[in-house]
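User: What would this chain look like folded?
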Amino acid sequence: MLHHIVLFRFHDHIDADTIAMVHAEFAALVAATGLIRDFRHGPDCSPEGLAQGFTHGWLLQFAGSAERDAYLVHPAHQQFVAMVQPLLAAALVFDFIDPASTL
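Assistant: Here's the prediction, encoded as structure tokens.
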């Protein structure tokens, strides 16, 4: 199982309705690509104060690297990236393979 973590830091002027639209468009990629095994999302709620301005996170799970790689070049994902980039001050993407899921 490959875990794909995405964190967004939106520009200060981006409102809650726009963020909700981004989430809806992101969630639509599950059906549009057929490659995502699990999709979760939420705003930062950590009391530690270490989020560095990242306010929203997504966790996508793929069967493996091949599915993730196909997702990255999928036209629906590319369209989403083009739509969301102007709204972001920063994005962070981090992938890892869970060793426990390969046992």
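Residues 16-33 form the longest helix (18 residues). If you want, I can go into more detail on any region.
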